[in-house]
Amino acid sequence: MTKIFLVLLSLIAILQAQVPKILRVYDKPNDSGKAIIIEWRDEPDSTRSIVGYEIYRRAADEDSFYNIGFALPLSTSYEDASTTDNKDYYYYVKAVYRDTSFVSDLSLPVRSYAQWFHKRRLNVLVFAIIICGLVIWYTERAKKGEKLYVRRISGLDAIDDAVGRATEMGRPILFSFGLGVITDVVTIAALSILRKIARKSAEYQTKLIVPNYDPIVMAAAQETVKQAYLEAGRPDLYNENNLPFLTSDQFGYAAGVDGIMLRERPGAVFWQGYFFAESLILAETGHSIGAIQIAGTTAITQLPFFIAACDYTLIGEEMYAASCYLNPEPQMLGSLKGEDTAKMIITILFIVLVLFATLTKLIPSLNNLYLKIFDWFTAQ
Amino acid sequence: MIVNIIGTWIAAGLTIAILSFLYKDNPLYKFAEHLYVGVSAGFGVIYVWAFDLKPMLIDRFIENQGVERWILLVPAVLGLLMLSRWFGKIGYLSRLPLAFTVGIGAGLGITASIQGFLLPQIQATLLPLTTINNIILVVGVITTILYFYFSRDFKGPFKYLLELGIIFIMVSFGASFGYTVMARISLLIGRIFFLLSDWLRII
């Protein structure tokens, strides 16, 4: 009798070892809702070949369970991303073998819901507060009339020279935003530079051509040029047909701009905005027609081509500084000074942390603290 | 089969027409250019209709109910306001969707830049100064940041830090230039291979 009892007990123990056990069922943290995570533990029977795990779900208002997904062998969790928020769900997991299957217990009811704040993105919030706070503070100072210094960028003098040269040669000016769209900050900076160039071209009565890749950027460019011509006192010179939409195809645009350059033969060409693989095609054509070329972009992969083929190049943030220098309004100055101060703070913080990282090599007990700091900077 | 042959001949002809630009502007290039610009602009219109307007605005407006349906009127009205540019007196209304789009772009850009560039860059450079590679990396990052500091003129020893920064930038651009040229040459090889293989069938 005792032997039978012991055999039954060990049989139950073996069976229980093969039954997956649900550990946790919870709302996925730091998300916009509609997701629940199911975690389980399983010790698969090594004598059988496991196929995987089937996940079953029943909503509070449903009568039966439905198979909602499959997890591979060795998996211990599954994300159900098809839930409705604020509704109770019950789950169980089935371990599927080639010849049999084992079912876990039923989970407790769980609901998914959206979180207001992604706790792992606290680092982004801290930096955003610092940078935006500095920008607002400097903007307010600039509004009160305080003079905020911005150093001269060498490529800027060339803008006036280039417009003057095109006028002397009796040739038009060509300006391109590249493939940037209006939501790119670099396109917004390029609009400021266009405003300055448009004002100059209106003063000198030189034709300004702006072929466009994006219809919204075209609308913004037309507004900017129209306003600049008005400011220069020559609204009569403004011609919308000089700011046409070409195409929203990368190389179609490049072919179109190349054609315009060959036929109109501009004396000055400005490549200001975001560029991709078409940059060298455009800049080489500009070079071949003998135009003075001034480029400016934040596209790191295209900057080398502009540096090689153009007369002047505004590198990355120099474009923002240039747009600020040309239009020294409080908002622009405040943004630049705020960014500069943030850069200084980050550089100092960075030096301190690098020295601390070096110190951990001498004092290993500091390593845990260093790893915590390192982890804090992880972008989620 | 005959369709494939015609397609290959058209593609080869247009490739040669575009490459003829290397000699000088000519009627062949002009034809290929205008065809390309026209076809891509036309394709753009179909694309916007088939992948943006219809599925994201019209279909959703029909399918959705309640708030999710009526909220779609906001982008629809903003889109229509863009067309007000055609009507002189109310043309100023087109500035509203422009301002909205610019504002959204700038706002999203702040968090995206911090999350996508700033934090990974800081983390990737938090290295102990125990190897030559690490020292070069850390010095390169610091001097490059200093180069993009516009609020003051650097004089004295700081000036040399700026010059060191521009050296690091140029070395990086040189490497990027070589790398990209390699990629472009492979594109050219692909095009030449198409002409010699698919079209002329000599390789």
SSE layout and pairings?
The complex is a heterodimer of chains A (380) and B (203).
Chain A: H1 2-18, E1 21-27, E2 36-41, E3 50-59, E4 66-71, E5 77-80, E6 89-97, E7 101-103, H2 122-143, H3 154-169, E8 173-178, H4 185-204, E9 208-209, H5 215-231, H6 250-264, E10 268-274, H7 279-288, E11 292-297, H8 303-309, E12 312-315, H9 318-326, H10 330-362, H11 367-376
Parallel strand pairs in A: 8-9, 8-10, 10-11, 11-12
Antiparallel strand pairs in A: 1-2, 2-5, 3-4, 3-6, 6-7
Chain B: H1 2-19, H2 27-63, H3 67-70, H4 73-82, H5 95-125, H6 132-147, H7 157-199
Helix pairs in contact in B: 1-2, 1-7, 4-5, 6-7
Notable traits:
heterodimer, A: 380 residues, alpha/beta, Immunoglobulin-like, Rossmann fold, five-stranded parallel beta sheet, four-stranded antiparallel beta sheet, 11 helices, 18% strand, elongated, B: 203 residues, mainly alpha, extended
Descriptive account of the structure:
The complex is a heterodimer of chains A (380) and B (203). By secondary structure, chain A is an alpha/beta fold. Chain A has three domains: 18-103, Immunoglobulin-like, CATH 2.60.40.10; 119-134 and 332-376, no CATH class; 151-327, 3-Layer(aba) Sandwich (Rossmann fold). Helix content of chain A is 46%, strand content 18%. Chain A has eleven helices and twelve strands. Chain B has 203 residues and is an all-alpha fold. Chain B has a domain at 127-203. Chain B contains seven helices and no strands. Chain B has helices at residues 2-19, 27-63, 67-70, 73-82, 95-125, 132-147, 157-199. In chain B, helix 1 (2-19) packs across helix 2 (27-63), helix 1 (2-19) runs antiparallel to helix 7 (157-199) and helix 6 (132-147) crosses helix 7. The two termini of chain B are 20 Å apart. At the A-B interface, helix 2, helix 5, helix 6, helix 8 and helix 10 of A face helix 2, helix 5, helix 6 and helix 7 of B.
